[in-house]
Amino acid sequence: MTTNTNSVLACIDGSVLSEAVCDYAAWIAQRVDAPLKLLHMIDHHPEKAVTLDLSGNIGLGSQEHLLEELTAVEQQCSKLRLQQGKLLLQAAKDRVIQAGVADPDTCQRHGSLVESLIELEESIRVLVIGIRGKVHENRPDKIGAKLESIIRSLHKPILVVNGAFKAPQCIMIAYDGSEAAEKALDMVANSPLYKGLTCHLVCVGKDDDKGRTLESAAGKLINAGGIDVVAKRLPGKPEQVLCEYQKDQAIDMIVMGAFSHTRIHDLLLGSFTAKMLAHAQKPLLLLR
Amino acid sequence: MLFLSKKQDWLGNIRGDVLSGLVVALALIPEAIAFSIIAGVDPKVGLYASFCIAVVTAIVGGRPGMISAATGAMALLMVTLVKDHGLQYLLAATLLTGMLQIVAGYLKLGSLMSFVSRSVVTGFVNALAILIFMAQLPELIHVTWHVYAMTAGGLAIIYLFPYIPAIGKSLPSPLVCIVALTGVVIYLHLDIRTVGDMGELPDTLPIFLWPEVPLTLETLQIILPYSVPLAVVGMLESLMTATIIDDLTDTSSDKNRECKGQGLANIGAGLLGGMAGCAMIGQSVINIKSGGRGRLSTLIAGSFLLIMVVFLDTWISRIPMAALVSVMIMVSIGTFSWSSIVNLKQHPLSTNVVMLATVIVVVWTHNLAFGVFVGVLLTSLFFANKISHFMYVESELDDANSARTYRVIGQIFFNSTGKFITSFDFKEAVDKVVIDLHRAHFWDITSVTALDKVVIKFRREGVDVELIGMTEATATLVDRFGIYDKPEEIEKVMGGH
Questions:
Q1: Could you tell me if residue B373 is inside a domain?
Q2: What percent of chain B has a predicted confidence (pLDDT) above 70?
Q3: Pair B53, B105 in one domain
């Protein structure tokens, strides 16, 4: 497992989900006794022009003037964003301190979220992020544009938050017997995060082989101790069945492996993770 | 990889890209015509080239938002080829240029740009501006006063029109200049030269054709001496322009992909009956200024240019050359790096010498490649000279033992060996000399030979010589040990400083 110096990283952007992100991050940080870090990215859009001057002429020192002008405009915008980000981070910090985290760390960076997260990957224990950012804030049917690339490029557990915080009591592991699912299972068994929770180990499909591995998987979890295990095998289409089961059993969080196939495979057959992201009502903890 | 691009490079800035693409297309038309005239071919050759190069680089280029088309720098290199052998050989040379650039792209020669210093780039840009201006002179010599009046009026419109409130910043002033001057000529029935007098304009879409040249070694011997400088100048100007756009937009570009993209664009131009081209500094700046950032802007510029010239060919043929000259003078002024003149006083002499030498060589030879070559050479020499100052020898005498210790500190290479040798006092009568080389860096065989010489000279004077720290010093013979790709080794070697 990762060492304790690695922190729970919460990505804040000021959208409606940011508060829930803070709460979940605080919950995890306290349970696994890891430091909490709040990250705010200052997004730049160099592909978008800010000034429009169609006069189409160039004269003495045009290039220098243009550079100065563009620099001045961007400087103003960036200053403003920097300031806004600081306020957001301060608010988030206050919130997690209230939730009981002793000394949260804050971090503000320029550039793209994906690149920054890849740089920070080594120091991440769990990443907590909202399912959609500011751009799609009011579009509950959409998932964030960067989410898939973030999940694909990181190899750390990622909690995707899609609603207000409720301290998880009862979690569900989507189990399919695959290598990724085994790995997810090991992580659940070894992590302090899940101690004292009820854990539904759910396998969708009729395959008897899978059923057998399900039993041994349940055994593994029970052996780990401290977890109440309910193993279930259900027929039907995985994403539908899992979502229904989540509702029926009042599951608070879903744990699953993510994007174990290549992009091309997913492009042709559709990705199970993407479907779950789109349909799940409760936060998803994706284990890579 | 060549055809891969991010969605935001195409669709991230649609409004800005479309509008700037239109502005650039309008400015590209006079340029393409003017550069065709420089090269001595029909305007349609430059126009087809501009269309093709812009469209191809929009898709495969490495720098979104950069405008590539038929350029003056390239046109100047092909003058004698067109004069001596005709258009078909130019098309063949264009094809070969493209192939050479693609090879250069795959060999990653784009990274060689790091040898081209800032002052060489400035010299290149200034020389380019001067060449573009000089190319306009034939249109301004032996003409009636009408032409001077028209050119002056055109320049006035270009620079003053944007100050008119409301419409000033929404209509491209070069276009206003062209329309106004064409109107004046038609209205007053002035008998001055127009674009139609300069050669054939395109009236159809370009068609695919293979250059009609024999595929022999002889053909290669004719075109290769033109293709090589064309390829070099094309890549130089493109990569310099890419750097300028990188700075303006605070983003980065893929230089090697740009080389391949330019190559592919030139092959396309050659097959569609166009001349070789490259990125244009002036137009690219206009594009950024007009709000263009993405690949879409370049694509719109190229395709709109073709649509305009094909459907408006009768009108374009009536544009007076004076209007074109005004636009080109504007491009020349805009390309010139004004700050380089202002900064002449503050910059060190070596920088100024490099810049001016680059300008002078280019203006003299009409070949930007020679200018850059001279500039890079001078920069390297100046650099070697500066580094050789960072070498000194300390010494102290131990009277009791009649021994002197020399401590050599700094870089010893071909240029500093003279200083190195004269730092030793061979006339001093001592029994023993210790040469401490711990903090000395030997870079080449010349320096090692110089050390041998020093040791032998001391021996001849009857002195016992001891070298200490020799292993550290020779470890810097980087060429031999090839440690330059291991940062931790470099750290050990350079630790002395």
A1: yes
A2: 95
A3: yes
According to the model, what pLDDT value does residue A275 have? 85
Name the residue in chain A with its Cα closest to that of B252.
A46
For B108-152, what is each residue's pLDDT tens digit?
988 888 899 999 999 999 999 999 999 899 889 888 899 999 999
pLDDT, tens only, A139-161: 777 888 888 888 888 888 999 99
From the CA atom positions of chain A, what is the Rg in Å?
22
DSSP output for B121-141: HHHHHHHHHHHHHHHHGGGGS
Which domain covers residue B159, as residue numbers? Answer: 7-381
Instruction: Mark which residues 263-292 of B lie under 8 Å from A by CB.
Output: 282, 285-286, 288-292
A-chain residues near B24 (CB < 8 A): 56
Find the CB nearest B170 among A44, A54, A64: A54
Distance, CA of A194 to CA of A216 (rounded, Å): 19
Q: Is pTM beyond 0.95 here?
A: no
How many domains does chain B fold into? 2
Q: Which residue of A has its CA nearest to B14?
A: A48
CA dihedral over B92, B93, B98, B99, signed as positive or negative? positive
Return the residue of A nearest to B296 by Cα.
A47
Going by pLDDT thresholds of 50, 70 and 90, the confidence category of residue B486 is low
CA-derived radius of gyration, chain B: 29
Residues B222, B95 contacting (CB under 8 angstroms): no
Give the domain-ending residue among B350, B381, B412.
B381
Domains and CATH numbers, chain A: 7-45+81-161 (3.40.50.620), 170-287 (3.40.50.620)
CATH code of the domain covering residue B461: 3.30.750.24
In a domain, B363, yes or no: yes
**Domain end position, chosen among B381, B407, B429:** B381
Looking at B312-348, list the stretches that DSSP marks H as alpha helix, in order from N- to C-terminal side: 313-316, 321-335, 338-342
- Name which of A208-222, B434-448, B458-472 the model is least confident about: A208-222
Closest by Cβ to A57, choosing from B19, B162, B292:
B162
What SS3 state is found at B6?
Answer: coil
A64 vs B: CB within 8 A: yes
Residues of chain B with C-beta less than 8 angstroms from the C-beta of A53? 162, 169, 289-291
Which 206-245 residues of chain A touch chain B by CB within 8 A? none
Asked if residue B416 and residue B364 are part of one domain, the reply reads no
Q: What angle do CA B366, B368, B371 make, to 5 degrees?
A: 100
Residues of B in contact with A78 (CB under 8 A): none
For residues B79 and B39, the answer to whether their CB atoms sit within 8 Å is yes
